Amino acid sequence: MFRKIAVAAGLMAAAIAGPAQAQDYPTKPIEFIVPWGPGGGSDTQMRLVAQGLAEETGQAVPVINMPGVGGNVGLAEFAKRPADGYTISQIHEGLLISNGTGITDLNWDSFMPIALVTSSPQYLTLSKNDNFSTFEEMVAYAKEHPGAVRAGVTLAGVPHLHMAMIEDAFDIQFSYVGYEGTGQRIRALVGGNIDVAIGDVSSAGQFVENGDLIFAAVGMPERTAEEPDVRTFKELGQDLDLAVTRGVVLPKGTPQDVADALEAHLEKVMQNEDVRTKIKNVGSEPVFLGQDAYKAYLGKLSETVNRLVGKLAG
Amino acid sequence: MLDAFLAGAHQVFAFDTLIYMLIGSVAGIVAAAIPGFTVTMAIILTLPLTFAMDPLQGVSVMLSVYVGGYTGGLISAALLGIPGTPSSVATTFDAYPMARGGEPGRALSLGVWSSFFGTIISTIILIVAAPPLALIAVKLGPWEYFSLIVFALTIVASLVGNSLMRGLIAGVIGLGLATVGPDPMMGRPRLTFDSDILMPGLPFLIVLIGIFAISQLMGEVEDDGKSETKGALIPDVIEFKTWAVMREVLMHPVNLIRSSLIGVFIGALPGAGGSIANLLAYDQAKRSSKTPEEFGKGTPDGVIASEAGNSATAGGGLIPMIALGIPGSAVDAILMAALMVHGISVGPRLIMDNADLAYGMFIAMIVASLMMLVVCVLSMRLFLRVTDIPKQFIVPTVMICCVIGAFALNNRVTDLYLLGAIGLVGYGLKSLDYPLAPLVLGVILGPIAETNLRRALMSDGDWTVFFTRPISAVLLAAALLSVIFSIRSVLKMRKKNRAVTDEQDGD
Amino acid sequence: MTNGTEKSAAAGADASAASRARAEFARLISYIVFGLGSVYLSVRASALPTSRWEPLGAGSFPKLVFAVLAVLCLISAVRTVIDLRKTGHLSGLGAALAEWLKVRRFAFALFGLLVIYLGVLPYAGFSLATFVFLLITQLMIAGISKKTVIQSLIAALIFSVGLNLLFAEVFNVFLPRGVLFAG
Which residues cross the membrane (chain B) (predicted)? Predict the structure, then answer.
C-alpha cells in the first residue's frame, strides 16, 4: 500500500514537473498492447520484440493481449491511452482492410507509426488434387472453370485481400470459403476441403516438404531463403507483394522526441541477433523501417487496399 | 527409436526440469482451482520463461501446467459447486452433492484418480495412435463438424434436471447468446445494438463464470431462516481413503475407459476440447448406467466420467499438434509457439525430424500426471481447509477472483459489465429452476455449429452432402438415435413419476 | 387417523400446491419475457445484411435460433396456463414475492455491491475498489463486531492490495489502475 502511494506520489510529481525528458525515455515499464489472442503470429512475434525491447531499455515491457473483432477492440482501447510513449501497440494489414470495409473508423493514420519490425512472406499454397499442381496449371484451370477453385480465406481479412490481388492480377475467379486463421486454413487444405489458400512457412512448410501441399508462388520481391525453389509472383509475370507486415505504433499526439527515442531503441532491437533468429524461427523476417519509411509503406498499401476493397465487401 | 526415447527421457529426468515441472504442476492446479482463472492464463505466464529454457524443458513445464490444470478445476467444482475451469462443468453435478453429503474427501480423491487414469490412457493412445488419428481428424470437413455438434447438442436431454422443456429453452438461449457480437464469418457486428459492451461478443468464459460462479455465490448468502447459514460450507468430516478410492475408480473400468476415449477423440478434434468432453462423457455414462436416476445426486460414476473425460483431452489435444503441427486450442498454439521460438518446426515431420523431442513430450506427459497425482494427494487436506473458511471470507474473495479472471481473459473492462449482467440472469434462471448446464453447452456449441454450417454451404451449396458423406451421415444418425432414446427415457420417467404422485395423492 | 392431522395434512398439501402454482406463475412470466425477446431478436436478425460470399448470411442462424426459442417459450407458456387453470389457486402472490425477496435480501445486496464495484473499478482502480468491496461484503455477511471488523480489514487488505501487487509485480498482469492515480 505504502509503496503504491509512493509510486503514485512519484507519478504525480512527474506529471507536475512536465513530460519526462526524452533522453531518459523510458523510465518505467512500457505496456505493449497486442490486439490479438495469445499463441498467434502477432502475439509470438511481438513477445519476442517486447523481450528485446526490455533488454535494450532495461525496463519491463509486459505484453497485454486484448483480442476481439479482428484486432479492433485492442486498438480502440489503445487509442484512448495517454500519448506518453508508455503504451505501445502493433498493427498489420488487417487494420487497413477493417477500415476499408467499414468495420472500424480507425486507420493507420489514427496512430503514429514508429517502425515496421517483422514481415512474414505469404505463399500461395495448393492442395494435392487432380486438376493442377503448379501455378500455371491452376490459373489455366481457373480460367476454364470460373469459380470452381475453392479458396480458403478469412473473409474480409488479409488472406482475402491477397487472394483478391491474385484474382485481379491474373484475371481469374475463385469461390471463397471462410476460415478463421492460418492454422484452420492449412488443416482444411491438407484435408482436401479447399483447393488453394494463403499459407506461410511456419504453418505449411513441413506439409510441403512432406509432399502433402505445394507452394505455388511467394509474394515477395525476391525468392526467400527458406524456400529457394518457390518462384515469386514477379517471375510469374505480376509484381505482387503478399506479406503480412507488423509494426509498432504509438497513440497520436505522442511527443516527437519520445517517438524518436522509441524508434532508435527498436532499431537496435531489430539488430539483436537473438531476436532476429527467434523471429526467423517462428516463420517471419526481422526487418526495420523507421517512421518515414514505414509511413510511406502504409500509404502505398492503403492505395492497394482501397483499390481492391470493393472486391472484399460482402 | 530407442535412442530417441532415451535421449528424451534423459532430458526430462534432469533435476532442474523436474523441479520446474513440479512448480508448473502446482501452478496449473492452483490456477484451475480458482474460479475465473484458467489454464490458458497460467500457460501464457509461463511462456516467456520458457524462451530461456531448452525446448524440451520448456514444453515439459508447460505440459505439467496443462495436466495440472485439467485436474485443478475439480477442486472448486467439488467443494464450492463452481466449475474452476470450463472443462469441469459436469464435475459439479455429482462431486458437489457428494461433498455436501459429507464426503468431500471421497469426491476429491475420486476426481484426482479419474483424472490421473484419464491422462495416462490418453497419453498411451497419443503414443500408439497419434498419426492415424490425426489423419482422420484432419479429413473431417465442415459437414462432419456440424453433424458432430448436432449430436453433441442432443446430450442436453441428460442435463435438463426437472423439466425437459426448460432445459431446451436454456440450451437455445445459450445458442442465441453466442450469436451476439461479431459474425464469425465476416466479423461484422450483429445484434450488438451499437453498444461497446456487446461489440466484442459474449466470451464463453465470461458466460461460464457469470452463470455458475456469480449465481452460486449469490445463492450461498440466501437466508432461509435456518441456522447453519453463517457456518462453513461443508461439514468437516475428512476422510480420504486414497487407496480405497483408487480401487473404487478401477472398479468402474468401462466408464473410465469409455470416458477417456471420448476425451481423447473430442480432444483430437481441433476447436472442440475439454469443455465439451466432460459433458459428453457424463451423458454417455448416464445413459449406459443401470441407475441413471442416481446421476446428479452424488454418484461416483458421474465424477469419474467427467474427470476422466476432461483429463483425457490433454493427451487428445496433443494428437493433431504432435502428429501434424495443427493446434487444437489456444493452449496448443502457445505450446507450438514455445517450440518454434527455439527453431523447431512443428508439423507432420516432427516425429521423424525431432524424435527425441516427441518422445520427450510423451514422457513429460506421464511424469506430469504422476506429479499431479502426488501434489493432489499430498495437498488435498490443505484444499479441504477451504471448506473450513467462514462464508464471509470465501464468498467475497471468490467473487473477486472471478472478477480478476474475467478481466485478465481479454483485458477488457467491458467484459466486467457483461459478467455482472450474466450473473444476474444466471441467478434468475437458477431461482426459476432452469438448468444452467444446457445454456453453457449452447454457448460453447453454437458458434462451432454456425461456422461449420455456413462453411459447408460455402464449400458446396448442396444440402444433401451432409447425408452423403459417410462420417457426417453416421453422426446425424447417432443424433437421431440419441433423441429417440431421450424421448423414451423421458416418457419412462414421467410414467414412474406419475405412479409416485398417484400414490401420494391416494395417501 | 384423527381428524386434526388429516386437516393439517390437507392444509399442507394445499399450501404446497399454492406455492407450486406461484412458482409456475413466475416461470410463465419468464416464458413470456424470453418469448417476446426472442421474437424481437429474430426480427432484428432477419434485418441483417446478406452476403455475396455465402448462401447463409450473418442473420440466418440467429434468426433460426431465436425462432425456435420463441416456439419453445410459446409451448411452455400455453402448457403452464392450462396447468394453472386446472389447479386454480393463485393466492397471495404479493406476500410470496415479498417473502421470496426477503430470503434473498443478502444475495441481492451482494449483487448490488458487485455492480457498484464493477462500475467503480475502472475509476478507483483495483486496490481501492476491491478493498472497500471486500470490507463491506464481509461485514454484511458476518455482521459487525470488533472481531469481524479486524478480521475483515486484514482479509480485505490482503486480497485487494496484496493481489494487485502479486499480479503486477510477479505476473506482469495489470489490473485496472484507475484514473485517481493517473498513470
Answer: 20-47, 59-82, 116-138, 145-161, 197-218, 256-281, 330-351, 357-380, 392-409, 471-491
Q: How far apart are CA A67 and CA A33, in angstroms?
A: 10
Using the predicted structure, report yes or no on whether residue C5 has a pLDDT greater than 50. no
Range of the domain at C63: 3-102
The verdict on C85 and C118 lying in the same domain is no
Distance CA(B336)–CA(B334), nearest Å, equals 5
- All residues of chain C having their beta carbon less than 8 Å from the beta carbon of residue B461 are 55
Residues C108 and C90 in one domain: no
Instruction: Verify that C94 and C117 share a domain, yes or no.
Output: no
Chain B nearest CA to C52, separation (Å)? 10
Per residue in C109-127, pLDDT (tens digit) is 999 999 999 999 999 999 9
Say if residue A107 is in the same domain as residue A134: no
In DSSP notation, A28-90 reads S--EEEE-S-TTSHHHHHHHHHHHHHHHHHSS---EEE---GGGHHHHHHHHHS-SSSSEEEE
Q: Is the pLDDT score of C182 beyond 50?
A: no
Q: Are residues A102 and A128 in the same domain?
A: no
DSSP B107-175: HHHHHHHHHHHHHHHHHHHHHHHHHHHHHHHHH--HHHHHHHHHHHHGGGGGG-TT-HHHHHHHHHHHH
Residues of chain B with pLDDT under 70: 1, 224-240, 272, 497-507
Q: Which value, to the nearest 10 degrees, does the dihedral of the CA atoms of residues B17, B20, B22, B28 take?
A: -130
CB atoms B412 and A194 under 8 Å? no
The 3-state DSSP class for residue B473 equals: helix
Contact C53 A314 (CB under 8 A): yes
CA-based nearest residue to C149, from C158, C138, C157: C138
- On whether any CB of chain A is under 8 Å from the CB of C52, the answer is yes
Distance from the Cα of residue C45 to its chain's centroid: 26
Q: What is the mean pLDDT of residues A38-52?
A: 90
CB contact under 8 Å between B333 and A202, yes or no, is: no
Taking an 8 Å cut-off on Cβ atoms, the answer to whether B419 and C51 are in contact is no
CATH number, domain containing residue A172: 3.40.190.10
Q: Is residue A230 part of a domain?
A: no
- With a CB cutoff of 8 Å and minimum separation 6, the contacts of A141 are A131, A132, A148, A149
Chain C environment of B221 (Cβ under 8 Å): 106-107, 110, 141
pLDDT digits (tens, 9 = 90+) for B127-164: 998 888 888 888 889 999 999 999 999 988 888 877 88
Q: How many domains does chain A have?
A: 2
Beta-bridge mates of residue A214: A126
Question: A1 and C127 in contact by Cβ < 8 A?
Answer: yes
- Of A305, A268, A218, A207, give the one whose Cα is nearest residue A49: A268
Q: Are residues C113 and C97 in the same domain?
A: no
Domain count along chain C: 2
Q: For the residues of A131-183, what is the DSSP string, one character each?
A: S-SSHHHHHHHHHHSTT-SEEEE-TTSHHHHHHHHHHHHHT---EEEE-SSHH
Most C CBs within 10 Å, among A2, A3, A4, A27, to test the C interface: A4
Chains in touch with C (≥3 Cβ pairs < 8 A) = A, B
Co-location of C59 and C23 in the same domain: yes
CATH number at residue A301: 3.40.190.150
Q: Is A176–C172 a contact, with Cβ atoms under 8 angstroms apart?
A: no
Domain span at residue A212 reads 123-218
> Does the residue C183 lie in any domain?
no
Identify which of C53, C172, C174 has the shortest CB distance to residue A176: C53
By C-alpha distance, the chain A residue nearest B144 is: A193
Q: Where are the domains of chain B?
A: 2-220+234-506
Three-state DSSP class for A127? strand
d(CA A109, CA A119): 20
| pTM for the structure as a whole | 0.89
B484 Cβ contact list (under 8 Å, min separation 6): none
